[in-house]
Amino acid sequence: MNRRSFLGKAAVGVAATGLASTISSPVFALAKKKGIAMPIGFQSYVFREEISNQPHETMSRLASYGYKNVEWCSPKGYQGPFTPLVKYSGKELKKITNDAGLETTSCHFTWQEITDDASLAERIEFANQLGLKCMVCSGGLGAKTADEIKKRCDQMNHVGEMVKKGGMIAGYHNHNGEFDEKIDGRPQYDIMLEHLDASLVKMQFQVAAITSGYKAQDYFRKFPGRFISAHLQDYSPSDNTKEVVMGTGIVDWKDFFVAAKTGGLKYVFVEMESDPSIMQGCANYLKEIS
User: Fold this and answer.
1) DSSP letter (8 states) at residue 249
2) N-term to C-term CA, the chain
3) Residue 40's pLDDT is what?
4) Pairing mode, if any, of strands 227-232 and 103-109?
5) What DSSP designation does 55 have?
6) Burial group, residue 286, by CB count within 10 angstroms (0-12, 13-18, 19+)
7) What does the pLDDT read at residue 12?
8) C-alpha angle 268/270/274, rounded to 5°?
9) Helix crossing, 279-289 with 25-34: angle to 10°?
10) Spatial separation of the C-alpha atoms in residues 259 and 83, rounded to whole Å
11) What's phi and psi for 47, nearest 5 deg?
12) Nearest to 49 by CA among 76, 72, 77, 82
């Protein structure tokens, strides 16, 4: 089960839900000049079984690829894939992560975990133990009407206020549904951006939206400073349902990283759900351009 399928099941009733070996030196120089290089990260859900059963060994292997940063999924919210890790405190998970040579700046939390104040307080404590900079809500704002989206955005703004008091930044992660499912001809994502408080909730853009016709860099430029991070995917030019090594697909990464500074990005996390074997190739590509 991929992460999107997992979240869809978890949120029932809650929300609608060939390696490129080189890159031109001018692009590399531009990245350095613009200061948009950022630590290479990966999303832990891709390796959920391996991490759950052998967390240190698996993350040490990923660190050897060149990854520096891991985005966790909250074991409490993602029980099933991460049940074996529920026993660990945030401090213990932080130690496992750091001992493998990785930092952890971000973590996904489910809508159910963070929209109850008592649960949210406990999750903020866990997040601080883990050493997070960002607490990212993994979905839940989608709805059938604009009014319902606004209501849920108000809830998310409250979460953002509490997370800010806890010393971190709240984020919201999109899926393709926020673009595919429209209200009055507009993507739901655009309505969310109108109602989320930019000072309390930043966005984590899933580049997979390109398969629905929406480019991350267009949103970075249209909504400057609204984004904190992104999930990186790339897709075959002949079949946009097939994930491929970054730099060999349909995403214009040069333009993406140029626009990233405007968008406000601080972190990127590779998330190749269908084929984890290409994660090493993606790390190699990102090392060349960062």
Assistant:
1) S
2) 32
3) 95
4) unpaired
5) H
6) buried
7) 37
8) 155
9) 70
10) 38
11) -115, 35
12) 82
Answer yes or no: are the C-beta atoms of 128 and 166 closer than 8 Å.
yes
pTM above 0.70, yes or no: yes
CA dihedral 205, 207, 210, 215 (to 10 degrees): 60
- Helix, strand, or coil here: 63? helix
β-partners of residue 203 are 172, 227
pLDDT tens column, 27-61: 333 344 443 478 999 999 999 999 999 999 999 99
Token digits for 168?
């971190």
* d(C-alpha 284, C-alpha 97), whole Å: 21
pLDDT surpassing 50 at residue 26: no
Contacts of residue 109, defined as CB under 8 A and 6 or more positions apart, other chains included, come to 74, 77, 123, 135, 136, 137, 138
pLDDT at 19 over 50: no
Q: Which residue, chain included where needed, has tokens 């026993």?
A: 87
Amino acid at 8: G
Domains annotated on the chain, with CATH = 3-9+38-289 (3.20.20.150)
Write down the pLDDT at residue 33.
Answer: 43
